[in-house]
Amino acid sequence: MKLNVLFGMLFITFHSHSQNSVQITFLPKFEGDNLALNNVYYFKNDTLNINNFKCYISNLIYYKNDSIVHSSIKKAHLIDAADSSSFIILENAFFKYDKIRFNIGVDSLTNVSGIFEGDLDPANGMYWTWQSGYINFKLEGTSSLCPARKNKFYWHIGGYSPPFNTLKQIALKTNGTVSIQLEKLFEEIDISVEYQVMSPNDNAVQIANKLTSLFKTNH
Amino acid sequence: MGKNVVILCLFAFMMISFVLIKDNHFFNPPDYFPKPVYDFQQNPLDSNKIELGRTLFYDPILSDNNTISCVSCHSSFNAFAHTDHDLSHGIFDSIGNRNAPALFNLAWQKAFMWDGAINHLDMQALAPISHKSEMGSNINAVIMKLNESKEYKEAFLNAFQDSTISTAEILKALSQFQLTLVSANAKYDRVKMGKEVFTEQEKNGYQLFKKDCASCHSEPLFSNYNFENNGLPIDPTINDLGRYVITENDNDKAKFKVPSLRNLSFTYPYMHDGRFMTLQEVINHYTSGIEHSETLSSQFNESVELSSNEKVDLISFLLTLNDKDFVFNKKHQFKKLAGQAKE
């Protein structure tokens, strides 16, 4: 009888765990609010509009007390502001974690290994066709300070080989939600000068160096 | 125990030979060719996939207005190069800024395009599909058009067991066809295999080739596929800086990928911008036209000196690199999809 109860309890725990999967959420934000595409933002002395934001999260590893508890099976995950279901990364396993480590972008090995499906499909608009390589981070919109035609700015940040390697690694303490504070980029980049970055070059590396500071948790 | 090991070994041996035989059927380079760069394990050759790639290669559906196919600039009869034009042209009669290179022995190449912009054969087709002066389309539009075709849906299903056509399937099929474009049956190869002999003139030419050309155009592929500056003055109407455009490294200024010398007679005009129409002009460039610059390949520190007789001998050797079996191979020519209606 006691044994039955024990087995029953075990089953319940086991069962509930197998029902569970662990998830982590990456939320694109602008000044604390969830990013709204095509919304008008009045930021400092600028009038801004973001109409496209995509970014790769890759080689995601979970830690508990500084030991690895899980490595994401998925090679790379594409966050797309136009699709809120892409904000959530689901792991088909159960574990507890207090820290994550990941790359912002796609690593060099993946960049030189030919064609992939799913999030890495070049049809997602995150691949340069004229010069092989993934775009790690893409932000497009308009800014009243941008001198380009129709005030359009394009930040397509990519490049996998030195000296223009734009992949960034980051580790954060977290219990499940990471904010991507996009307004920080507009604080750090002079958009009246840097408004068209669309190839692996020095400008891309400069912007890539600022990307880790966008990712924040409540910890 | 011992018996089991023997049986296991036998079984493994059979499996390996089976795989080898299967691959050899489609890809059978001579044994003096080096190991291919392409990883066939990621995209094992299969007759349905090769045939699908061949159909796609010949189909203008890849271009925005269904007028330009891969063959528009890569004709089988020219060893898949573009002749008659110095600069190749694409959709809406747009003229590009380079001469389309010949396509063969691609399995041994580590980078594609004259400047190495593309790092993997699978990714290559995305470039012409998307280029506004080539096919002016994009992969999403191509997928949509292919998905509307009953014949293509069937062909992709047969090849990939998948009714939804994807980027990966399109690109892998195109790679498969292009991987079968192996040129290895020129007179040079037959001599190498002991089936023929060079004439005296060809022999002399071969010696001159080994002295003056082979450091970049290395045997048996007749290219080391590196990037080199061969002393061409930069054409001010194009200002093409080659590899530098990709790397922004000053050491790469005016460097271009060394092309193979195989099938030369079929692939004129020569150089990245098609500036030379004849082999004589090419050889005269090397003997008397080299422009010195900081990135000039060190091979040209000493000038190339050839008498007019030697030039003739050298050309007679170069002509032994023409592979008619490759150029006129029916398996590389146009073929309709099984279900495609007659036009």
Largest interface summary: A-B, 18 and 26 residues
Q: How many helical elements of chain B?
A: 13
CATH class of the largest domain in chain B equals Mainly Alpha
Rounded to the nearest angstrom, the distance between the terminal CA atoms of chain B is 64 Å
Give the terminus-to-terminus CA distance of chain A.
46 Å
**Rg of Cα set of chain A:** 20 Å
Helix and strand run of chain A: HEEEEEEEEHEEEEHEHE
Total E-strand runs of chain B: 2
Can you tag this structure with a few keywords?
heterodimer; A: 219 residues; alpha+beta; nine-stranded mixed beta sheet; five-stranded mixed beta sheet; 14 strands; B: 343 residues; mainly alpha; Cytochrome Bc1 Complex, Chain D, domain 2; 2 domains; two-stranded antiparallel sheet; 2 strands
Structural features, described:
With 219 residues, chain A is α+β, with helices and mostly antiparallel strands. Chain A has one domain. Helices cover 17% and strands 38% of the residues of chain A. Chain A is built from four helices and 14 strands. In chain A, the strands form two sheets. In chain A, strands 3, 4, 5, 6, 8, 9, 10, 11 and 13 form a nine-stranded mixed β-sheet that branches. In chain A, strands 1, 2, 7, 12 and 14 form a five-stranded mixed β-sheet that branches. Chain A is globular and about 50 Å long. The relative contact order of chain A is 0.18. Chain B is mostly helical and 343 residues long. Chain B has two domains: 40-182, Cytochrome Bc1 Complex, Chain D, domain 2 (Orthogonal Bundle); 187-324, Orthogonal Bundle (Cytochrome Bc1 Complex, Chain D, domain 2), CATH 1.10.760. Chain B contains 13 helices and two strands. In chain B, helix 2 crosses helix 7 and helix 9 crosses helix 12. Chain B starts with a helix and ends in a 16-residue tail after the last helix. The model of chain B has no long low-confidence stretch (mean pLDDT 92). The chains are: A alpha+beta (219), B mainly alpha (343).
